[in-house]
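Bit of a strange request maybe. I'm writing a small parser for structure token strings and I need a real example to test against, not something I typed by hand. Could someone generate the tokens for this chain?
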Amino acid sequence: MKKRVLTYSLLALGFITSCQQKKEENLTPLQKVVIEDVKQNTPAGWSIETLAYSKPDSAFTDATDTLSPIHTYLGQQIDCMYVQSSDKGDTLYINTYVINDSNEIIKKFVTSNPIIKDGKDWDQQKEKLRAVFQGLDN
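Reply from user aminoacidic:
Good idea to test on real output. This should exercise your parser:
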């Protein structure tokens, strides 16, 4: 019996790990740059749950950034919505990144708000957040 439980536990762990790896394999190059930055800026022991990415869009200089009325191409802009969780609570982040053609982050804007994840309704809350976030792309 113990052997069977151990076998099933190992299979479940392998499946979960495989799903996580496949999820990260399906990311675009821009999304990979973003999630790597998120991981690097997450304290040890905290968890990350990515909720959504925006559609990439071209980023240009703003006329207020320069004296020239001509806008200069900077790279691609992408937004990422995710939750960082720790024993002290949960925080919802929406980060905007500008990534150049060499896949380097050249600008980053971070917005965060503490949230309360209601255990049984968290899946519904996530779907509502995703819907609002992705509605901004339209």
